[in-house]
C-alpha cells in the first residue's frame, strides 16, 4: 500500500481487556486499515493504513472511546 501511514492515538478510556477488544475492532472496521494494536499500560492505540486519521478518530468516538492523535514530535 503506497499511502500507508501510521498514527499513535491517546485513548484514555481504556480500562480492561474488553476495552482493548472494542477499540481494536473499531479501528479495524475503518476501510483501509492495515494494522491496529492497543497498548493497555499507555492507554494508546497504534493504527496503520490508508484511511485518513479523522476516520479512525470518528470510529472510536462512535463506540464511546474519544481519542486524540499523539503529535509526531511527542513520540
Automatic annotation (TrEMBL):
Keyword ATP-binding: no
Gene: copA
Molecular function terms from GO: hydrolase activity; metal ion binding
EC top class, as a word: hydrolase
InterPro entries reported for this sequence: Heavy-metal-associated_CS, HMA_dom, HMA_dom_sf
Natural source organism: Calidithermus roseus
Protein name: Copper-exporting P-type ATPase A
Gene3D superfamilies found in the cross-reference section: 3.30.70.100
EC number: 3.6.3.54
Keywords: Hydrolase, Metal-binding
Sequence ranges assigned to domain HMA in this UniProt record: 5-68
Pfam families cross-referenced by the UniProt entry: HMA
Amino acid at each position: 500500500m503506497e499511502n500507508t501511514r501510521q498514527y499513535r492515538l491517546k485513548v484514555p478510556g481504556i480500562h480492561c481487556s474488553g476495552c482493548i477488544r472494542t477499540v481494536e475492532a473499531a479501528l479495524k472496521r475503518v476501510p483501509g486499515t492495515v494494522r491496529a494494536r492497543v497498548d493497555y499500560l499507555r492507554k494508546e492505540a497504534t493504527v496503520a493504513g490508508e484511511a485518513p486519521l479523522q476516520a479512525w478518530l470518528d470510529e472510536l468516538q462512535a463506540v464511546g472511546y474519544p481519542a486524540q492523535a499523539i503529535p509526531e514530535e511527542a513520540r
